Amino acid sequence: MALPPQDERTLPAVVLQDLDKQPLEQALAGVQGLIDQHGHLIVVCSQAVSPETGRRLHTIRSLLETDRIALFRPALPPLGLAVLARQLRQLASCDLGPGVLASAGRLLTHYIHAGALLGSVARLDRVHVGLRQHAKSWVPGQHFAVLAHPEPQLVKLAPGITLAGPEFGTSMLVAKGQLQSDWVTASLVPQWNAQGLRETVLPAESAAWWGTGKLIEFAAFLPDLSVLYQLVTSVRQGSCHWCGIDVIGDRCVFCSAGPPPVLENQNQLPAGRGS
Predict the structure, then answer these.
(1) What is the pLDDT of residues 163-206, one digit of tens each?
(2) Where are the beta strands (DSSP E) in the chain?
(3) Secondary structure of 113-136 in HEC code, one letter for each residue
(4) Which of 22, 34, 101, 269 has the highest Cβ tally under 10 A?
(5) DSSP-assigned states of every residue in 164-207
């Protein structure tokens, strides 16, 4: 899902539509054209997409024999993932290298609070559902507030009930499914002290991710580009020992190389001996 630009600097996204349904040659040519045009490609993909799509992405990357495609599939609900993709599009306008930009995805996930109000948790398998909560979900009219990220929470909705929210200023994005309720906008937004509220369409994968179409999905996030940039540039950067690209963290997001092994010096002599 490609969200509308957050500001005038937000770069557009390329949606790889029906990637698993295209002939392989057509999908290869399309991705190769994007690499030729932009140099590197960061693919942000939901864990709720079909297994065929996931396999097709890995097949394309393998057949192109390139280390310029970063596949990123964080454990975020679809709306939270769409928010993260837009944040990366915001940062793409800054002076960040492709490795640092792709690595920033792992960092920024920690600052996204994503959840949903559900009409049933009977088929929810992304967050632990207790036996009592599972039984109550079959009672008509029951609503459940669920936070999937960063710390899973699940509570039956009742007066005064809320979810633990961010301890920093955020904006809120809301996408309504087939559930009718004003709890998110009337209760959760002021409880979380969200500084802004916008609505968008429900992502295509949301019903599959949450196990029901009776939902209202929400995500709280950092909207300011300057704050995002400061977060990313404050983290120590290093060069991948295999492909040489600058990254954040120990594992390269493009070639997947981890940190080099620490080898003991086999020729080192015991102290006080040798010359």
Answers:
(1) 999 999 999 999 999 999 999 999 999 999 999 899 999 998 99
(2) 41-44, 69-72, 113-118, 144-149, 153-156, 171-176, 197-200, 215-221, 237-239, 246-248
(3) EEEEEECCCCCCCCCCCCHHHHHH
(4) 101
(5) ---SS--EEEEEE-S----HIIIIIHHHTT-S-EEEEPPPTTHH
Give residues with Cβ within 8 angstroms of 55, minimum separation 6.
20
67 closest CA partner among 237, 250, 243, 251: 243
Pick the closest to residue 109 from 255, 231, 216 (CA basis): 231
Q: Tokens standing for 267?
A: 């020729």
Are 134 and 204 in the same domain? yes
Q: With contact defined as beta carbons under 8 Å apart, do 78 and 126 qualify?
A: no
Q: Which domain holds residue 87?
A: 24-111+225-248
Query: How many Cβ atoms sit within 10 Å of the Cβ of residue 234?
Result: 8
pLDDT tops 60 at residue 136: no
Instruction: Give residue 262's pLDDT band: very low, low, confident or very high (50, 70, 90).
Output: low
Helix (H) or strand (E) holding 85: helix 78-91
Question: Mean pLDDT over all residues of the chain?
Answer: 87
- 195 and 239 share a domain? no
Instruction: Report pLDDT digits (tens) over 64-96.
Output: 888 889 998 998 999 999 999 999 999 999 999
Does residue 88 share a domain with residue 28? yes
pTM over 0.85: yes
